[in-house]
């Protein structure tokens, strides 16, 4: 029987409850499709800080490195905001991305017809939206050096460095070309080349690559314009290729096209090591433990893991179909509610998904 080793990182806030739902579904789906998933649950984020003082303990990192794929729920809680930066949950996430060389973050944004009314945008604007944000994840201003805070005469000065090398730009752009080729063959590369040198290099490198990939159409937008175009006419986008910081911002914005950030999955990939699959949303500590969280982004992240990381395509299809079916039936968590729908909690929507598989 095919066997896959999965590290599970439930993390903080609503993390554990959405993990439980997802794990049960994965057990069912693996049995049904004739493979075995071996789960290894590890500490990460705030829960790891509470137990070990570190957001990414060595044991967790080693387990992730040895796995076939990592499934992460969410991390973070305001109670850690006063810790030194290197001890905060978010730093653990950045370290995990860096140590596993997860330079390619893929965030698909697809409007499900059943959720059109849940968006804050008009149905006519978002109908048919199907785009992917390809975000560079291990470089740019998130990791650039020098960075820090220093004392100066008049107080303090703080600084970060936005930096990219040609190689870093080329490897993420190549991922975008590859993805575009299996879709509508259009890439919009987003930068701020009218102001930033780092963005000019980004644009130059993407242009060079586009000469070698003439089957894919390339256009460039400045990030401010891209942010505006995303809500003006999101259907114009197929693959959006961008840097770490711009991708962070644009992917949250794009997420809201779907009605709820609670719907969006993501994959963070390296060249050949295990990927990390996680919902785009955060740990939502304000609703943790209330059984009202929407687990669908994590379930859809698990589907991405099955498809991309484990090559279990049929199982991935059937998990995604189960999500569509439950939504079509009008079964919703609170964040997606509208008239004529039935509101259920996190556990209950999990049971409905089990029935739909
Ligand atoms: C994301 C998150 C993270 C990021 C935070 C939690 C560090 O916002 O994955 O988009 O900024 O990358
Ligand atoms: Mg973000």
Task: Describe what this molecule looks like in 3D.
- This protein is an alpha/beta fold and 357 residues long.
- The chain folds into two domains: 1-103 and 265-357, Isopropylmalate Dehydrogenase (3-Layer(aba) Sandwich); 120-258, Isopropylmalate Dehydrogenase (3-Layer(aba) Sandwich).
- Helices cover 40% and strands 22% of the residues.
- The strands form three sheets. It has a ten-stranded mixed beta sheet with strand order 2-1-3-12-11-4-5-10-8-9, sandwiched between helices. A two-stranded antiparallel ribbon has the order 6-7. The protein has a two-stranded parallel sheet with strand order 13-14.
- The chain is globular.
- The two termini are 21 Å apart.
- 46% of the residues are buried.
- What top-tier CATH class of the largest domain fits best? Alpha Beta
CATH architecture of the largest domain: 3-Layer(aba) Sandwich
Structural class: alpha/beta
Measured as a percent range, the helix fraction is: 40-55%
What name goes with the CATH superfamily of the largest domain?
Isopropylmalate Dehydrogenase
Share in β-strands: 15-25%
Strand order, sheet with most strands: 2-1-3-12-11-4-5-10-8-9
Distance between the ends: 21 Å
Which kinds of small molecule does this entry bind, naming each only once?
3-isopropylmalic acid, magnesium ion
How many individual helices?
12
Number of domains: 2
Gyration radius, in Å: 20 Å
In CATH, the topology of the largest domain is named Isopropylmalate Dehydrogenase
């Amino acid at each position: 029987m095919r066997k896959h080793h999965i590290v599970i990182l439930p993390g903080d806030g609503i993390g554990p409850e959405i993990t439980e739902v997802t794990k049960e579904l994965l057990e069912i789906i693996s049995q049904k499709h004739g493979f075995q998933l071996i789960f290894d649950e590890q500490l990460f984020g705030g829960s790891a800080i509470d137990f070990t003082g570190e957001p990414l303990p060595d044991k967790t990192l080693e387990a992730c490195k040895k796995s076939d794929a990592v499934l992460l729920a969410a991390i973070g809680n305001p109670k850690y905001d006063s810790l030194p930066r290197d001890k905060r949950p978010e730093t653990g996430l950045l370290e995990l991305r860096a140590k596993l060389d997860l330079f390619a973050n893929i965030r698909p944004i697809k409007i499900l017809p059943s959720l059109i009314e849940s968006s804050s945008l008009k149905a006519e604007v978002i109908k048919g939206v199907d785009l992917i944000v390809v975000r560079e994840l291990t470089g740019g201003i998130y990791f650039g050096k020098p960075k820090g805070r220093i004392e100066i005469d008049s107080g303090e000065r703080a600084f970060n460095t936005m930096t990219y090398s040609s190689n870093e730009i080329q490897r993420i752009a190549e991922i975008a070309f590859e993805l575009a080729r299996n879709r509508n063959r259009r890439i919009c590369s987003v930068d701020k080349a009218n102001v930033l040198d780092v963005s000019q290099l980004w644009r130059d490198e993407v242009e060079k690559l586009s000469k070698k990939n003439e089957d894919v159409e390339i256009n460039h937008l400045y990030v401010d314009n891209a942010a505006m175009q995303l809500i003006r006419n999101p259907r114009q986008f197929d693959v959006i290729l961008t840097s770490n910081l711009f991708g962070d911002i644009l992917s949250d914005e794009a997420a809201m096209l779907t009605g709820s950030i609670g719907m969006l999955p993501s994959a963070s990939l390296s060249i050949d090591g295990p990927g990390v699959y996680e919902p785009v949303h955060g740990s939502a500590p304000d609703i943790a433990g209330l059984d009202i969280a929407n687990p669908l982004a994590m379930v859809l992240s698990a589907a991405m893991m099955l498809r991309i990381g484990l090559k279990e395509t049929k199982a991935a299809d059937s998990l995604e179909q189960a999500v569509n079916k439950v939504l079509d039936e009008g079964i919703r968590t609170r964040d997606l509610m509208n008239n004529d729908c039935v509101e259920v909690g996190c556990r209950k929507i999990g049971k409905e998904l089990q029935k739909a598989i």
